[in-house]
Amino acid sequence: MKIIKQIVAVCMIFVLSAGFAGCEDNNNNLNKNPDDNIDKINYTETLRVYNAGEYIDMTTIADFEKEFAIKIEYSEFESNEDMYSEISKNLNSYDVLVPSDYMIDRLIKEDKLEKLDKDKVPNIINIAEEYLNPVYDSVNDYVAPYMVGTLGILYNKKYATDNINSWTILFDSQYQGKVLMLDSQRDSIGITLKMLGYSLNSGDDNELAQVKSKLNNMRFTYDESEIIRDKMVAGEGVLGVVYSGDAKIAIDRNPDLAYAIPIDGSNKWVDGFVIVKNTQHLAAAQKFINFMCRPNIAVRNMSKIGYTSPVKGAWAEFGGNKIMFPAEEELERCEAFLYDISAAEKYDKLWSEIN
Questions:
Q1: Short-list 227, 87, 65, 247, CA closest to 156
Q2: What was the pLDDT predicted at 59?
Q3: What are residue 110's DSSP bridge partners?
Q4: N or C: which end of the chain has fewer CB within 10 A?
Q5: Nearest one of 210, 84, 151 to 333, comparing CA atoms
Q6: Pairing of strands 268-276, 144-156
Q7: Residue 18: pLDDT band by 50, 70, 90 thresholds?
Q8: Strand ranges for the chain from DSSP E
Q9: Res 186 pLDDT > 60
């Protein structure tokens, strides 16, 4: 009998030990991060991408990394001028840039970009013809267009009682202190030039003196487009100068808002992917650009950021939205920003004196 009791005791100890071990395993499983079960990517190299803020669907980057085993080191800039200042310190601190038209023009003229091997970027064929071959890159040797849009006025219909169809409304005394202006020299100088009846790209001293006078006479609040967007959604401004993508997002969030491209004319812009001269990751850069030109990836980026991809195969998803796809007569009144070294120096000086 004593022997039987000892056997039973040993069995009980074994059963209890197994039970505690099971509980411990269950507790460990509860504390595990689900991501721990995901296979780690064995990256073959790192590609450094420099883009404007809030200007990509980050899940598309994650998918690129998984597909190609290339790590993306992603950074953001607030303006083309900030981007240029940063790369001027060390051009090869980045591999791929996403500047606007006039800055791409400048980088080409300064021989800071690699030519695209179109055999390695075959998806460039997906770009709509009207966005190819810009005047500063007539055969797309350097740029693969990424997003396109316009510059206009986002306004609150409850408080803006006038017909919002001209840049002159920004300078109307009744809206003093209620206008949110873009903290961007080319945009703010450019729209003032258009209001005065001049070209966005004017370098005329007399015309720029008039711009300076107009801007100095107003107490504008200057901010980034996405900050203006959020302030307008929150009802903190009556009129705001924004890019079309931010206008779309704002109106989606607040139906009291509307967007206008002034009859004076505006900027029709194209931002694009370019590759930095002498990059050590040329093949990876071309893979990344080609990936971003896929229609399904373009749809995801458009859905996230509100801007219009020039990839024509992505357009059907958006039902002809008038902000994303303005009327032809509106676009005919618009210009592209271009780079001229003499004018750029004048813009820098003017901006430092009013901002």
A1: 247
A2: 98
A3: none
A4: N
A5: 151
A6: antiparallel
A7: very low
A8: 45-52, 70-77, 96-97, 113-114, 144-156, 179-182, 221-223, 239-243, 257-260, 268-276
A9: yes
Q: What pLDDT score does 219 carry?
A: 82
Mean pLDDT across the stretch 71-95?
Answer: 97
Measured in whole angstroms, how far is the alpha carbon of residue 295 from the centre of its chain? 18
Q: What are phi and psi of 124, to 5 degrees?
A: -65, -20
- Separation between Cα atoms, residue 355 and residue 347, nearest integer Å: 12
- On average, the pLDDT of the chain sits at 91
β-pairing verdict for 144-156 and 239-243: antiparallel
CA distances (Å), 181 to each of 79, 178, 233, 305, 354, in order? Answer: 14, 10, 15, 21, 12
pLDDT tens-digit readout, 229-275: 999 999 999 999 999 999 999 999 999 999 999 999 999 999 999 99
| Closest among 220, 168, 172 to 228, alpha carbons compared | 220
What is the full DSSP assignment across 262-317? -TT--BEEEEEEEEETT-S-HHHHHHHHHHHTSHHHHHHHHHHH-PBPSBGGGGGG
Q: How far is CA 178 from CA 40, 45, 121, 239, in A?
A: 51, 49, 46, 6
Helix, coil or strand: residue 71: strand
Q: Say if residue 164's pLDDT is above 90.
A: yes
Give the tokens for residue 62. Answer: 């994650």
Radius of gyration of the chain (CA): 27
Residues 201 and 338 sit within 8 Å (Cβ to Cβ):
yes
Structure tokens at 133: 């071959």
CA distance 59 to 109: 34
Band of pLDDT at residue 355, cut at 50, 70 and 90: confident
Q: Six-digit token pair at 70?
A: 């290339």
- Using CA atoms, how far apart are residues 183 and 166, in angstroms rounded to an integer? 20
Tell me what pLDDT residue 32 has: 42
Q: Using an 8 Å Cβ cutoff, are 165 and 260 in contact?
A: yes
Task: Count other C-beta atoms under 10 Å from residue 29's C-beta.
Answer: 8
pLDDT interval class at 25 (50, 70, 90): very low
**Three-class SS state of 323:** coil
Residue 189 CA neighbour count, 13 Å, CB half: 27
